[in-house]
Write a structure and sequence with these properties.
Layout: E1 4-6, E2 12-16, E3 21-25, E4 31-35, E5 57-62, E6 68-72, E7 77-81, E8 87-91, E9 105-107, E10 116-123, E11 126-131, E12 134-139, E13 145-151, E14 158-161, E15 167-170
Antiparallel strand pairs: 1-2, 2-3, 3-4, 5-6, 6-7, 7-8, 9-13, 10-11, 11-12, 12-13, 14-15
Length: 171
């Protein structure tokens, strides 16, 4: 299995990397597939997430408005599932990246992602993404631009937000 995120009402969204399927487990103990069609690979942008193909989902996050973000690491993409169930790529070209070797900001659509290990939403407009040994910030409200915040000594394996708003990284 892969990563998960929990809403304040107890609903759980989780990724099953082996099957390339993100699923939603409601607090009433029912399971609903929300993304990932038959087989692995890449397909489906602009259409229903249920019919999309994904490859090795490694992280998932959910905004307070119901938008799901998932690291489709096998396809080197960050994908967005809108509240209406439509899936799209917001960061990544599909080409294998070499890690955040840039300075300043780059457009998400032009950035070649490497391997994403964790996602964290400090707020609905900002996504923190652990890519190899880099912490990247994606401006969800400003055209999905990507900036590099931190370069660690080792791969960043997980992210957490403390009650005071500080972000913890496990390396």
């Amino acid at each position: 299995s892969g990563a998960m995120t929990v809403a304040t009402n107890g609903d759980i969204w989780f990724a099953q990397s082996e099957f390339q399927i993100a699923q939603w487990r409601r607090s009433d103990a029912t399971v609903h597939r929300i993304a990932g069609g038959p087989g692995r690979g890449f397909a489906g942008d602009g259409g229903p997430a249920l019919d999309a193909r994904c490859e090795r989902i490694t992280a998932v996050a959910r905004t307070s408005t119901g938008v799901i973000l998932l690291a489709d690491t096998g396809n080197h993409r960050l994908r967005r599932i809108a509240a209406d169930g439509t899936i799209s790529t917001i960061v990544g070209t599909g080409a294998t990246g070499t890690g955040a070797t840039f300075t300043g900001a780059v457009a998400g659509a032009t950035y070649a992602l490497s391997s994403v290990n964790a996602l964290l939403l400090p707020d609905d407009n900002t996504l923190l993404m652990a890519e190899d040994d880099h912490l990247l910030r994606v401006d969800l409200a400003g055209g999905n631009t990507v900036t590099r915040d931190v370069t660690a000594s080792y791969f960043i394996s997980s992210l957490a937000k403390m009650p005071d708003g500080k972000v913890l990284m496990a390396v």
